[in-house]
Every structure is written in structure tokens, then in C-alpha cells.
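Q: What would this chain look like folded?
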Amino acid sequence: MAASPGRGLTSSTNCAALSDPLVSEALRQQARLYGRKRGRPLRVGRQRLVDELLPRLVVDLPAAGQVDFATLFARPRRSVWLEIGFGAGEHLAASAEARRETGFIGCEAFANGVAKILGEIERRELDNIRLFADDARLLIAALPPASIDRVFILFPDPWPKARHKKRRIVSTETLGQLAQITTDEAELRLATDDVGYFSWMLGRVTTHPAWQWLARRPADWRQRPADQPPTRYEEKARAAGRAPFFLRARRRPRSEVSAGLQANACDGAKEGVAEGGGFEPPTGFEVL
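A: My prediction, written as C-alpha cells:
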């Protein structure tokens, strides 16, 4: 699951000892991660991968300036996608295997999740994944503008209690930061099995000038996109009888946003109703 933001100083993970990466202390003071950073002790094989493979794949943040994509991957990539909170890495590994010409950056602060995807990277012989084992917002701040073509935040912690909602990774602030680093026409994909969080996500995406919700019919948010591999969180939700929700949003071209052409992102969905598309929100659904 995606790490959740907050305030204060964060303890972080990276490389062999999963210790702090090189980041600005001033930037780190603005972030805090909630939730577990480590689970059960790593088995010998996975610890070996952390010690030997992770240092070759980790994204080190520069002391100043931005991450250099020209040297990040061993060879040039057609495009670069970002996954925030990849969990155990099922989606990230499957996506990278299916699109070997695309570069992937995966962010995950949970040490056991990082160790698990290292095993998949080795087993599948993937050379197009780079990892950041810390708060994704630290990485986002160091990425070049208009450098990411797709972003995934799949099944992040919903933090359902009212006093914890500020910890949610999907926020107006995060959407603004992602708008800076994504290319025009880039796609943002969100998923959750919590109806309250889906309402929260939708309320923020549809009111942000840089993003346009792409739903045109109920199936667009009820069904996972056909080209998107499943995650264990989706499978657990379905097994427990919870229906997942999927949200796709388009990064409006900068010229369109600058010109003030900020059409209501829900217009397409409303048109679907008018045309007999039958768009209906889920039971208990309310845009928050």
C-alpha cells in the first residue's frame, strides 16, 4: 500500500541497510510516513538481494537539482511510469515484464515489499525497474517536470477515521505535485476498495484544474482497466466481498489549463447518462 503523508521528520529506508537516502533535510522535515516500515525478518535469500541487487537499482536523490533520467536506466526508455506504494510489487513486476521498453520507478517504504519485488526482478530478469524505498513525495520533488507518462496509486491505506484523513496520499497537494512531473496527456490511475476513499479521490480529481476524469460509463470505475495487472489487495477485497473502484484521469495539456479551458471533469459521465449510458454512483457514494 502507498505510504501516507503527514508532518514532521520521517525515518526512511534505502539500499543495503535500507537507511536514509541522500535528501535535503529541509524537504524531509515536511514529510512523515505512517504505517509499518518493516515486517518479519527477511529470509537469507531476500536479504542477499537487498544487500547486492538493491544498491544497483535504487534511485538516489541528488543533493541539488533533479534526477537525471539519462543515467537512471542502463539504456534510453520510450517512456517512464511511476507507481507509488507498490506493496509486494505484483502489479509493478507484471507491468515491467509486459512493457520492457518502458522504464518504471516504484516507490515503497515497507522494507519487506521492497525485498519481495527484488526477487521478482531477479526471477523475471527485469532491467527496466528502479526503486525508491522512502516517501514518494521526496522523489516527486526531485523528478524533472513533464517526465512521467503514467502514475499508479493502487489501493493505498484509506485511513478511514476522520482524524486520520490528512494522512491520505491522494490529496489536492499531491495531485498538484503529480501534475508538475507528468507529461501532457499523461494518465493517473487510482484504485481503492473503500467507498469513502473513492469519494474522496473523485472529489479531488474532478475539482483539480490539471486533471480530467475519464469515466464515461459505470464499467469505467467498476472494472479494472484491461491492460492493468491485478494486485493482491484487489484479490483480497473481492474475496472479502468488497467491490474495488478504479479511477482514471487525464493530465490536461498545459496550454489548455493555462488558457482556462477547465471543463467539468464529470461532463463526460453526465453525457453518458443523457445518452442512455446509465451512469450511477455506487450505493452510499457521494463526492467528498
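Residues 111-124 form the longest helix (14 residues).
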